[in-house]
Amino acid sequence: MQTTVHTTVRFSGIGLHTGRPVNMSICPAPSDHGIVFERADIRLGNARIPALFDFAEHSPLCTKIVNEAGVSVSTIEHVMAALAGCGVHNALVRIDGPEAPVLDGSAVAFVRSILAVGVKQMRAPIRVIEVLGTIEVHTAQGWARLGPGEGLTMDFHIDFADRAIGKQSKSLNLSNGTFVRELSDSRTFCRASDVDAMRAVGKALGGTMENAVVVDGDAVLSPGGLRHHDEAVRHKMLDALGDLALAGAPMLAHYEGHKAGHTLTNMLLRELFATPDGYRIRECDAVLAARLPGAGVSAHEIPAVA
Description:
CATH topology: lpxc deacetylase, domain 1
Order of helices and strands: EEEEEEEEHEHEEEEEEHEHEEHEHEH
Keywords: Hydrolase, Lipid A biosynthesis, Lipid biosynthesis, Lipid metabolism, Metal-binding, Zinc
Cofactor: Zn(2+)
Number of strands: 20
EC number: 3.5.1.108
Helix content: 10-25%
Mean pLDDT: 93
Enzyme class: hydrolase
Family: Belongs to the LpxC family.
Low-confidence stretches: none
Number of helices: 7
Strand content: 25-35%
CATH architecture: 2-Layer Sandwich
Number of domains: 1
Structural class: alpha+beta
Protein backbone atom coordinates (compact mmCIF):
# COMPACT_ATOMS: atom_id res chain seq x y z
CA MET A 1 0.00 0.00 0.00
CA GLN A 2 1.03 3.61 -0.53
CA THR A 3 2.50 5.52 2.39
CA THR A 4 2.94 8.97 3.84
CA VAL A 5 4.69 10.31 6.96
CA HIS A 6 2.79 9.85 10.24
CA THR A 7 3.25 13.48 11.29
CA THR A 8 4.97 16.61 10.02
CA VAL A 9 8.75 16.79 10.33
CA ARG A 10 10.58 20.14 10.24
CA PHE A 11 14.04 21.29 9.19
CA SER A 12 15.91 24.59 9.27
CA GLY A 13 19.19 25.44 7.60
CA ILE A 14 20.70 27.29 4.66
CA GLY A 15 20.61 26.68 0.94
CA LEU A 16 23.82 25.24 -0.50
CA HIS A 17 23.82 27.57 -3.49
CA THR A 18 21.81 30.60 -2.30
CA GLY A 19 23.33 30.71 1.18
CA ARG A 20 19.92 31.89 2.42
CA PRO A 21 18.21 30.63 5.62
CA VAL A 22 15.26 28.35 4.93
CA ASN A 23 12.63 26.38 6.85
CA MET A 24 11.12 23.23 5.39
CA SER A 25 8.41 20.82 6.56
CA ILE A 26 7.53 17.37 5.20
CA CYS A 27 3.80 16.97 5.82
CA PRO A 28 1.40 14.01 5.47
CA ALA A 29 -0.56 13.87 2.20
CA PRO A 30 -3.40 11.69 0.86
CA SER A 31 -3.15 8.70 -1.47
CA ASP A 32 -2.15 9.39 -5.09
CA HIS A 33 -0.92 12.87 -4.10
CA GLY A 34 2.71 12.09 -4.84
CA ILE A 35 5.49 14.40 -3.66
CA VAL A 36 4.62 18.06 -4.13
CA PHE A 37 6.61 21.11 -3.02
CA GLU A 38 4.82 24.28 -1.89
CA ARG A 39 6.49 27.67 -1.51
CA ALA A 40 5.08 28.96 1.79
CA ASP A 41 6.63 32.38 1.19
CA ILE A 42 4.56 32.99 -1.95
CA ARG A 43 1.10 34.32 -1.08
CA LEU A 44 -0.46 34.86 -4.50
CA GLY A 45 -0.83 32.55 -7.46
CA ASN A 46 0.24 28.95 -7.87
CA ALA A 47 2.90 28.10 -5.28
CA ARG A 48 2.84 24.30 -5.70
CA ILE A 49 5.31 22.35 -7.83
CA PRO A 50 4.94 18.59 -8.40
CA ALA A 51 8.24 16.75 -7.94
CA LEU A 52 8.12 15.25 -11.43
CA PHE A 53 10.73 14.95 -14.19
CA ASP A 54 8.86 17.20 -16.63
CA PHE A 55 8.89 20.06 -14.10
CA ALA A 56 12.69 19.86 -13.80
CA GLU A 57 15.03 22.35 -15.45
CA HIS A 58 18.38 21.03 -16.62
CA SER A 59 21.07 22.10 -14.17
CA PRO A 60 24.55 20.64 -13.70
CA LEU A 61 24.86 21.38 -9.96
CA CYS A 62 21.43 20.57 -8.52
CA THR A 63 17.89 19.49 -9.33
CA LYS A 64 15.46 22.38 -9.76
CA ILE A 65 11.72 22.09 -10.37
CA VAL A 66 9.62 24.94 -11.78
CA ASN A 67 5.85 25.24 -12.24
CA GLU A 68 3.91 27.01 -14.99
CA ALA A 69 3.91 30.25 -12.98
CA GLY A 70 7.71 30.26 -12.78
CA VAL A 71 7.77 29.34 -9.08
CA SER A 72 10.72 27.08 -8.32
CA VAL A 73 12.51 25.05 -5.66
CA SER A 74 16.08 23.88 -6.18
CA THR A 75 18.48 21.36 -4.66
CA ILE A 76 15.66 18.92 -3.92
CA GLU A 77 17.63 15.77 -4.75
CA HIS A 78 18.65 14.90 -1.15
CA VAL A 79 15.08 15.30 0.14
CA MET A 80 13.74 13.23 -2.75
CA ALA A 81 16.33 10.51 -2.13
CA ALA A 82 15.39 10.37 1.55
CA LEU A 83 11.68 10.05 0.75
CA ALA A 84 12.31 7.34 -1.85
CA GLY A 85 14.82 5.53 0.34
CA CYS A 86 12.38 5.51 3.28
CA GLY A 87 9.51 4.32 1.09
CA VAL A 88 7.39 7.48 1.31
CA HIS A 89 5.09 7.88 -1.71
CA ASN A 90 2.99 10.91 -0.71
CA ALA A 91 4.03 14.14 1.01
CA LEU A 92 3.54 17.89 0.86
CA VAL A 93 6.91 19.60 1.31
CA ARG A 94 6.31 23.18 2.50
CA ILE A 95 9.31 25.49 2.17
CA ASP A 96 9.72 29.23 2.74
CA GLY A 97 12.44 29.87 0.19
CA PRO A 98 13.74 28.88 -3.25
CA GLU A 99 16.16 26.16 -2.12
CA ALA A 100 15.99 23.16 0.21
CA PRO A 101 18.29 23.24 3.26
CA VAL A 102 21.61 21.48 2.70
CA LEU A 103 22.06 20.49 6.38
CA ASP A 104 25.23 18.33 6.48
CA GLY A 105 25.33 17.81 2.70
CA SER A 106 23.83 14.33 2.81
CA ALA A 107 20.31 12.93 3.23
CA VAL A 108 20.79 11.42 6.68
CA ALA A 109 19.06 14.17 8.69
CA PHE A 110 15.97 13.84 6.51
CA VAL A 111 16.06 10.05 6.90
CA ARG A 112 16.48 10.24 10.67
CA SER A 113 13.48 12.55 11.10
CA ILE A 114 11.24 10.57 8.73
CA LEU A 115 12.00 7.29 10.46
CA ALA A 116 11.59 8.91 13.90
CA VAL A 117 7.94 9.78 13.21
CA GLY A 118 7.34 6.67 11.13
CA VAL A 119 5.65 5.90 7.84
CA LYS A 120 1.89 5.34 7.68
CA GLN A 121 0.30 2.88 5.28
CA MET A 122 -2.69 4.02 3.28
CA ARG A 123 -5.51 2.17 1.50
CA ALA A 124 -4.41 2.72 -2.11
CA PRO A 125 -2.02 0.30 -3.82
CA ILE A 126 1.49 1.28 -4.86
CA ARG A 127 1.93 1.67 -8.60
CA VAL A 128 5.39 1.02 -9.96
CA ILE A 129 7.07 1.87 -13.24
CA GLU A 130 8.48 -1.29 -14.80
CA VAL A 131 11.18 -0.62 -17.40
CA LEU A 132 10.74 -3.05 -20.32
CA GLY A 133 13.64 -2.23 -22.62
CA THR A 134 16.97 -0.40 -22.66
CA ILE A 135 16.95 3.41 -22.69
CA GLU A 136 20.25 5.28 -22.96
CA VAL A 137 21.34 8.92 -23.20
CA HIS A 138 24.76 10.47 -23.76
CA THR A 139 26.47 13.83 -23.40
CA ALA A 140 30.07 14.83 -23.93
CA GLN A 141 30.67 14.26 -20.21
CA GLY A 142 29.12 10.81 -19.71
CA TRP A 143 26.13 8.55 -20.18
CA ALA A 144 23.22 7.00 -18.29
CA ARG A 145 21.15 3.92 -19.01
CA LEU A 146 17.95 2.26 -17.76
CA GLY A 147 17.12 -1.39 -18.35
CA PRO A 148 14.78 -4.01 -16.92
CA GLY A 149 15.13 -5.06 -13.29
CA GLU A 150 13.22 -7.00 -10.66
CA GLY A 151 13.70 -4.20 -8.15
CA LEU A 152 15.88 -1.09 -8.35
CA THR A 153 19.58 -1.79 -8.84
CA MET A 154 22.31 0.70 -9.65
CA ASP A 155 25.84 0.74 -11.06
CA PHE A 156 27.76 4.00 -10.96
CA HIS A 157 31.25 5.05 -12.08
CA ILE A 158 33.03 8.37 -11.59
CA ASP A 159 36.46 9.61 -12.66
CA PHE A 160 38.04 12.79 -11.23
CA ALA A 161 41.55 14.13 -11.68
CA ASP A 162 41.96 14.77 -7.94
CA ARG A 163 43.56 11.70 -6.38
CA ALA A 164 41.42 12.11 -3.25
CA ILE A 165 38.50 10.98 -5.46
CA GLY A 166 40.03 9.44 -8.60
CA LYS A 167 38.16 6.56 -10.21
CA GLN A 168 35.39 4.97 -8.14
CA SER A 169 32.75 2.38 -9.03
CA LYS A 170 29.96 0.88 -6.97
CA SER A 171 27.03 -1.49 -7.53
CA LEU A 172 24.03 -1.78 -5.19
CA ASN A 173 20.65 -3.42 -4.99
CA LEU A 174 18.56 -0.62 -3.45
CA SER A 175 15.81 -2.85 -2.08
CA ASN A 176 14.76 -2.67 1.56
CA GLY A 177 17.07 -0.47 3.66
CA THR A 178 20.13 -0.40 1.42
CA PHE A 179 19.81 3.33 0.77
CA VAL A 180 19.64 4.13 4.47
CA ARG A 181 22.56 1.84 5.37
CA GLU A 182 24.87 2.47 2.44
CA LEU A 183 24.17 5.88 0.91
CA SER A 184 22.16 8.20 3.16
CA ASP A 185 25.13 9.67 5.07
CA SER A 186 27.33 10.35 2.02
CA ARG A 187 27.88 14.07 1.49
CA THR A 188 28.05 16.28 -1.55
CA PHE A 189 31.59 17.05 -2.64
CA CYS A 190 33.56 19.48 -4.76
CA ARG A 191 37.09 20.29 -5.82
CA ALA A 192 38.73 23.26 -4.11
CA SER A 193 39.69 24.55 -7.55
CA ASP A 194 36.00 24.79 -8.51
CA VAL A 195 34.79 26.79 -5.50
CA ASP A 196 35.74 30.26 -6.75
CA ALA A 197 34.29 29.55 -10.20
CA MET A 198 30.98 28.41 -8.71
CA ARG A 199 30.73 31.44 -6.45
CA ALA A 200 31.53 33.75 -9.34
CA VAL A 201 28.27 32.61 -10.99
CA GLY A 202 26.22 32.76 -7.78
CA LYS A 203 26.51 29.08 -6.81
CA ALA A 204 27.81 27.38 -3.62
CA LEU A 205 27.26 30.58 -1.60
CA GLY A 206 26.17 28.47 1.38
CA GLY A 207 28.84 25.81 1.00
CA THR A 208 31.17 25.20 3.95
CA MET A 209 33.63 22.54 5.07
CA GLU A 210 30.84 21.24 7.33
CA ASN A 211 28.22 20.66 4.60
CA ALA A 212 30.42 19.46 1.75
CA VAL A 213 33.52 17.35 1.26
CA VAL A 214 36.17 19.58 -0.30
CA VAL A 215 39.18 17.96 -1.94
CA ASP A 216 42.40 19.37 -3.36
CA GLY A 217 44.63 16.93 -5.22
CA ASP A 218 45.21 14.01 -2.89
CA ALA A 219 44.02 15.91 0.22
CA VAL A 220 40.57 15.96 1.83
CA LEU A 221 40.26 19.45 3.33
CA SER A 222 37.01 18.97 5.28
CA PRO A 223 37.46 18.32 9.02
CA GLY A 224 37.13 14.66 9.94
CA GLY A 225 37.91 13.44 6.44
CA LEU A 226 35.67 10.97 4.63
CA ARG A 227 32.79 8.93 6.05
CA HIS A 228 33.50 6.20 3.47
CA HIS A 229 36.58 5.66 1.33
CA ASP A 230 34.25 5.86 -1.69
CA GLU A 231 31.96 8.57 -0.32
CA ALA A 232 32.00 10.47 -3.62
CA VAL A 233 30.49 7.70 -5.75
CA ARG A 234 28.05 6.88 -2.95
CA HIS A 235 26.84 10.47 -3.01
CA LYS A 236 26.43 10.33 -6.78
CA MET A 237 24.21 7.27 -6.27
CA LEU A 238 22.24 9.14 -3.60
CA ASP A 239 21.68 11.98 -6.08
CA ALA A 240 20.65 9.52 -8.79
CA LEU A 241 18.02 7.92 -6.53
CA GLY A 242 16.61 11.37 -5.75
CA ASP A 243 16.52 12.29 -9.42
CA LEU A 244 14.94 8.96 -10.42
CA ALA A 245 12.22 9.62 -7.83
CA LEU A 246 11.00 12.37 -10.17
CA ALA A 247 9.53 9.55 -12.24
CA GLY A 248 6.59 9.89 -9.83
CA ALA A 249 6.58 6.26 -8.63
CA PRO A 250 9.05 3.57 -7.58
CA MET A 251 10.88 1.96 -10.48
CA LEU A 252 11.63 -1.64 -11.37
CA ALA A 253 14.81 -0.99 -13.29
CA HIS A 254 18.56 -1.27 -13.49
CA TYR A 255 20.22 2.16 -13.64
CA GLU A 256 23.79 2.64 -14.88
CA GLY A 257 25.59 5.96 -14.69
CA HIS A 258 29.02 6.73 -16.12
CA LYS A 259 30.13 10.21 -15.00
CA ALA A 260 26.42 11.05 -14.91
CA GLY A 261 24.76 13.92 -13.09
CA HIS A 262 21.38 15.58 -12.60
CA THR A 263 20.98 16.60 -16.24
CA LEU A 264 21.73 13.15 -17.62
CA THR A 265 19.34 11.40 -15.23
CA ASN A 266 16.57 13.82 -16.12
CA MET A 267 17.28 13.34 -19.83
CA LEU A 268 17.03 9.60 -19.23
CA LEU A 269 13.59 9.89 -17.62
CA ARG A 270 12.36 12.12 -20.44
CA GLU A 271 13.56 9.58 -22.98
CA LEU A 272 11.91 6.73 -21.06
CA PHE A 273 8.51 8.42 -20.93
CA ALA A 274 8.79 9.40 -24.59
CA THR A 275 9.12 5.68 -25.42
CA PRO A 276 5.61 4.20 -24.91
CA ASP A 277 6.74 0.58 -25.28
CA GLY A 278 9.73 1.14 -22.99
CA TYR A 279 7.78 0.84 -19.74
CA ARG A 280 4.47 -0.09 -18.16
CA ILE A 281 2.65 0.88 -14.96
CA ARG A 282 1.67 -1.99 -12.69
CA GLU A 283 0.23 -2.38 -9.21
CA CYS A 284 2.33 -3.92 -6.45
CA ASP A 285 1.59 -7.12 -4.64
CA ALA A 286 3.24 -7.86 -1.29
CA VAL A 287 6.14 -9.80 -2.84
CA LEU A 288 7.00 -6.98 -5.23
CA ALA A 289 6.55 -4.26 -2.59
CA ALA A 290 9.07 -6.04 -0.36
CA ARG A 291 11.75 -5.44 -3.01
CA LEU A 292 11.28 -1.68 -3.17
CA PRO A 293 13.60 0.88 -1.51
CA GLY A 294 12.46 1.60 2.04
CA ALA A 295 10.45 -1.58 2.54
CA GLY A 296 10.85 -2.66 6.16
CA VAL A 297 13.58 -0.12 6.93
CA SER A 298 14.07 1.00 10.55
CA ALA A 299 15.97 3.75 12.35
CA HIS A 300 18.66 1.38 13.70
CA GLU A 301 19.96 1.03 10.13
CA ILE A 302 21.06 4.69 9.99
CA PRO A 303 24.90 4.70 9.90
CA ALA A 304 26.48 5.44 13.28
CA VAL A 305 29.03 7.78 11.72
CA ALA A 306 26.26 10.28 11.06
